[in-house]
Amino acid sequence: MNVSLVNAFVANGTGGNPAGVVLHADELTDTQKLHMAQVVGFSETAFVSQGEDADFNVSFFTPTGEVDFCGHATLATFSLLYQKGVIEAGDYTQKTKAGVLGVRIEPNGYVVMNQRLPEFIQTFDYAAVAELLGMETEYLSTTHLPIEAVSTGLADVIVPVPAGSLDQLNIDQERLYQFSQEHNVVGIHAFELNSQGSQITASCRNFAPLFGIPEESATGSASGALASYLTKYHVVETGIELHESRTHHFVFEQGRAMNCCSQLTASVELQSGVITSVMVGGIAQEFGQKTVPI
Q: NCBIfam families given for it (predicted)?
């Protein structure tokens, strides 16, 4: 089988997070998909087949198993379908284990993905998370912001960190693995807010050792969760005013500490103070192909 190698959430033609994309995967078994994901070796590989209740069925496999949803692999998938002329600009649906989700492709190739409405799952005290980051509890608490597990398809623990500390995090991968198992979360999505006037709302890092990902350079699902978190707590320092009934837009950078800086956009629609839509977008580029025997 042929696997397309696609960088998702590239910024000015560089960076991004690589995903494998397998088109025409209708006849593949889950065992074969897992094998291919392991051979490709990226954090996720997407497998695309003809849809019945949606335009396409898409499944996502890490090197360790299947996950319900993957934002950057979704972006890679629909960007590839568009670049290969399989689909045109417009609105489509994908059936995933996280539900049937919409995807819009703009004429310039920009892909915007619907995510599930946010689920705010559980808050954690600073002490429980500080040791995972290699940080003193008192220092982490200076953000005065909650630490909360949020899901718009996958549950990540959203962790605000003090300005200037993001690149210095020292993750205890084994402890985070155990913590993620215990609390049924993918991992940690840490962020620091950028100063007012910046075009970037927040800089982020994502750690998911439970799924074989020590660190990821762009995480679409967690970006939707972060945008929902920022909206819930009205946490913005870049000059954006949050209103009760309006679509709010955010720009995130991720991967800086990996020398692979990526850019992700997110929008959250509020109606009378209630989140009614979460979308994440970006640009993807194919950079190669790999043949995997099955």
A: PhzF_family
Among 44, 192, 215, 216, the active-site one is 44
Q: What is the rounded distance in angstroms from the CA atom of residue 275 to the CA atom of residue 32?
A: 39
DSSP at 246: E
Taking each helix axis from N to C end, the angle separating 220-232 and 71-83, rounded to the nearest 10 degrees, works out to 120
- Find, among 215, 267, 274, the residue nearest to 244 by Cα: 274
Nearest by Cα to 188 from 212, 204, 165, 167: 204
The Cα 80–Cα 74 span in angstroms is 10
Q: At what angle do helices 126-133 and 173-183 cross, to 10 degrees?
A: 140
pLDDT tens digits, 63-92:
989 999 999 999 999 999 999 999 999 999
- Please tell me the pTM assigned to this model: 0.89
The residue range of the domain holding 17 is 2-114+283-291
The answer to whether residue 253 is catalytic is no
Which pLDDT score is estimated for 237?
Answer: 55
What mean pLDDT comes out for the span 154-163? Answer: 96
Nearest to 254 by CA among 287, 196, 208, 286: 208
Q: How confident is the model at residue 195 (pLDDT cuts 50, 70, 90)?
A: confident
- Does 100 lie in the same domain as 142? no
CATH number at residue 272: 3.10.310.10
